Amino acid sequence: MIAVEDGWASFRFSTDGLPEGERAKAVRELYERTTVPGKIEPLEPLPNCSIRADIAKRTLPGLGVMSGTLCGLRQAARPRGAVSSNEDDLVLAVNLRGSSIAQQGDRELRLADGDALLATRGAGGFAILRPTSVRFIGMRVPRRAIAPLVGRLVHDLIAATVGATRDALASAERRGIRAARLRAIMADITANLDDCDLKVADVAQRQRVTTRYVHKLFEREGLTFSAFLLDRRLSRAHRFLSEPRLADLKISSVAFDVGFGDLSYFNRVFRRRYGATPSEIRQAAKRGDLPH
């Protein structure tokens, strides 16, 4: 499915409705059928693997974001010089859940839950292999657009990756890596809101850091893990209740779908946050009274 509006375009593709035997052909044809600006990088089926693709992409001026689930597929970024645009893009690929293999030339990097890869096309391009199911998010931005905005963040991440001196690494940690870690942790939390038993220890384990480190990252921003988790759950519940297409979904189902295990607690904190009950928000949405 493709949608195009002023300044942005979105695209959705899924093999979930296709028989197993037709999925390989569908993903091979995807690149040729896609008309979204920038398209997507070609997907190639891996031998002897179960194939699944369920992806969504949004392209805005200066930013492309793709997320979803891939399984049994190789995603290849063509070499510099093989494409007419997007040659100098920076690509950030984050494994939210699952295991991937990144390849560039004769180098190979394995990504586990919460791992991320920052890459450019280079002379030989690069590829990400996902033999088993991986939930991911990928972002693409022009290098020239992001460089003036992020200061030394990209340089800090690269320095830490290739092995800087102790002093340089400590300096990088103070500046950019903490911010990148916190964003990855926040993305992990947001991706797992439906887990009613989500705990800071679960996130820390996936991100391969200590629970204390997670708490310290939030403290530096004047936040707590619990407050951020509650805020994200309430925001998603409000969005669901404000969506007319979900009007038949029971309020209890909304509460449980966003991770609340106690309906009375959900009603209480929701009203404290929005000054209205979940039912009142839903009624206002039906009348078109909610602010845009």
The helix tally amounts to 10
Shape estimate: globular
As for the number of domains, it is 3
Radius of gyration: 21 Å
Main sheet attributes: strand count, strand direction, barrel closure: 7 strands, antiparallel
The average pLDDT value, as a whole number, equals 80
The beta-strand count equals 12
H/E series, N to C? EEHEEEEEEEEEEHHHHHHHHH
CATH topology of the largest domain: Jelly Rolls
Low-confidence stretches: 1-7, 158-164
Return the structural class.
alpha+beta
Descriptive terms for the model:
5-stranded antiparallel beta sheet, 12 strands, disordered N terminus, Jelly Rolls, Arc Repressor Mutant, subunit A, alpha+beta, 10 helices, 3 domains, 7-stranded antiparallel beta sheet, 292 residues, 42% helix
Task: List the SSEs and their pairings.
Elements: E1 2-5, E2 8-14, H1 20-33, E3 43-45, E4 52-60, E5 63-71, E6 73-77, E7 89-97, E8 100-104, E9 107-111, E10 116-119, E11 126-130, E12 134-142, H2 143-150, H3 153-162, H4 166-191, H5 200-207, H6 211-220, H7 225-241, H8 251-257, H9 263-274, H10 278-287
Antiparallel strand pairs: 1-2, 2-4, 3-6, 4-5, 5-12, 6-11, 7-10, 7-12, 8-9, 8-11
